[in-house]
Amino acid sequence: MLRGQSLTYDFGHHMGTLGDGIVQGAAGADEIRTAPLWGLRGRTPFLHDGRASTVLEAIQLHSGEATTIRERFFSLSEDDQQAVLEFLNSI
User: Cα dist. 88→19, 21, 29, 39, 57 in Å?
Assistant: First the structure.
């Protein structure tokens, strides 16, 4: 399952196709400051522009630096994917 895995939080990510095209300070057009996961269950919609209505949809839409993580999520068994989603929806 997820034993030994860690959740990290960085302030800016290269978002690939999800970038907003705005250059601001040191952040390029494909970089976005991501919100912390804590409090996720109380927020909708998801992603910087609100295009995802569920956590699963937000995971599906990730690209750029998050492509590898998205692929790792979808390589999990369905039970493990559900456990991750339940966890994210509980914090």
Answer: 23, 28, 28, 9, 13
The answer to whether the CB of 42 falls within 8 A of the CB of 58 is no
The tens digit of pLDDT for each residue in 52-63 reads 999 999 999 987
Number of independent structural domains in the chain: 1
56 within a domain of the structure (yes/no):
yes
Any domain includes 20: yes
Q: Tell which wins on pLDDT, 15 or 21.
A: 21
Q: At a CB cut-off of 8 Å and minimum separation 6, what does 31 contact?
A: 12, 13, 14, 15, 19
Query: For residue 5, is it within any domain?
Result: no
Residue 54 dihedral angles phi and psi, to the nearest 5°: -135, 165
Overall pTM > 0.90:
no
Q: In which domain, by residue range, is 73 found?
A: 13-88
